[in-house]
Amino acid sequence: MPKTKMKTRRSAAKRFHVLKGGKIRRERAAGSHLLEHKTPKQRRRNRKTQIVHRADAGRIRRQLPNG
Question: The domain 10-63 is classified under which CATH number: 4.10.410.60, 3.20.20.190, 3.50.50.60, 3.90.226.10?
Answer without folding.
Answer: 4.10.410.60
